[in-house]
Amino acid sequence: MRKIEVEVERMRARAQDKLMTKLASARHSADEKRATAELKRNRAAARTAEQAEHIRRTGRVPPSFGCWNWCS
C-alpha cells in the first residue's frame, strides 16, 4: 500500500513540474510579445512625432502622408 502511495505522489510531482514548466514557458512567451508590442508602439510614436515636427517646420504635409497611402 505504501509503495502505491509513493508512486502516486511521484506522478503528482511530475505532473506539477510539467505544469509549472508549461506556465513558465507561456509567461515567457507573453513577456516577449508584450515587449515586441511596446517596441512597435514606441516606434510608431517616434515616427508620428517626426512627421509632426516636419509639418511644424515646413508648414506642409509630406507626400507620404496622403490619404491614398493606405491603398498600397
From TrEMBL:
What protein family is recorded?
Answer: Belongs to the remorin family.
Matches recorded under Pfam families: Remorin_C
Report the source organism: Zea mays
Composition bias type Basic and acidic residues, residue spans: 28-41
All copies of the Remorin C-terminal domain together span 1-63
> Segment Disordered: which positions?
22-41
- In Swiss-Prot or TrEMBL terms, this protein is called Remorin family protein
Q: Which InterPro entries match?
A: Remorin_C (IPR005516)
Judging by the UniProt lineage, the source's domain of life is Eukaryota
